Amino acid sequence: MSAHRWTRLCVLGFLSNSTVSAPSARKPVSKIQPLLWRNGVGLARRYCGAGNNWLNNEAVRRHLNRLLGEYIAVSSSLQSEALGDSERRTLNRRVVELSSVADTFQSCELVLKEMAELEAHLQSASDGDKQLVELLREEQHEMEKKLRKLNRKLIQTLVPSDVHDDSGVLLEVAAGRTTGGDICQQFTREMFEMYECFSSYKDWDFKVLNYTPSDYGGLHHAAVNVTGQNVYRWLKFEGGTHRVQRIPEVGLSSRMQRIHTGTMTVIVLPQPRDVDIAIDPKELRIDTFRSRGAGGQSVNTTDSAVRIVHLPTGTVAECQQSRSQLQNRDTALHLLKARLYQGTLSRQVEERHTARKQQMGTRSQSERIRTYNFSQDRVTDHRIGYVTRDIKEFMSGGEQLEQLISELQEHAETEALLELVKNTKESHHADGSHA
Length: 435
Fold this sequence. Notes:
Elements: H1 3-15, H2 36-39, H3 41-48, H4 58-77, H5 85-124, H6 130-158, E1 168-178, H7 183-201, E2 205-213, E3 219-227, H8 231-235, E4 240-246, E5 260-271, E6 284-289, E7 305-310, E8 315-319, H9 325-351, H10 355-359, E9 368-373, E10 378-381, E11 386-389, H11 391-394, H12 399-434
Parallel strand pairs: 4-9
Antiparallel strand pairs: 1-3, 1-5, 2-3, 4-5, 6-7, 7-8, 9-10, 10-11
Helix pairs in contact: 1-6, 4-5, 5-6, 6-12
């Protein structure tokens, strides 16, 4: 609670002959009691929302209490003068690792205590003290928002972050099949523009590597390089099949005036700065051809388009963005390396077994993840059951898209926490059986 708010509450409390307690102070390390999940879980669950199933999980609470107990024990051990330099360095590293969990836990505990005090004051306040009640409810609302943020932060401190979260990405959009007409190509263009706007909204660089248009202003395929802060963290959940349901506005199928269903695919590949894929030139087949366009002046009259095939894996990349064959060749090679790196990464993910659950399907980019129903003005994300209205606003690539991705991140972090606790529990059981 801020000092200014507390002062106002004190004044109003004095005028109404009620008592307002001072904000609780942070406990010293040795006084941390990992009891939040026994005594405060009901209150935490009430204000954090029913969607936070991890608050109900006894294994999560035991895991958290175990970490806090370890933090207290290690902090106490560091007070000993008998420690050697090597042992002290090891313990210091562990304290640093656990301190973020302990600090966030303490913050949650303090907020819960303050909220309990506010609840008591609200119940004891008389109906005549409207100004005091209004101020208490205002403070309660602020504390609820603060607790939700701390709840999210606590999960993040418990779950290891993705090593690629701060990487740029290679983003590809490709039109799929449709039950009629050109809506896939039109929808693919709109999706491309949505991600371009979202990149501008997040202040990222959006560099077009390849853009293959279709008739009636649609888009067959495009590839872009997106760089900036935490790009992969924000875009990795966009990979997959996106479905559209609408009455086409242009093209042959627009004459039928009935709802058509189509799909397009988004592929998101991380682009780590310090990784390079070595490719033997003898393993490549390079073909050139005339670029395809929507017709007219956009059709190239020279063989400037380039297709590169990696013979050992059959991976293909092509580019026809530039009139320069050399530039297209460099871009196609960049795309090929990104896809080969993704193949290597996918194999590593499969070996780790739990990564698919932790990534919540982001590696499996063939699954249908979202439906855009234009007739009902509704967007539905099937992974978490998230529904939002106003498709036009959503596809402007601003706050609504950011909110959905934030919900996906939170869900994935919670799933990863439950998986981590499960693995930790199995590991402890295995250690106990061998003992």
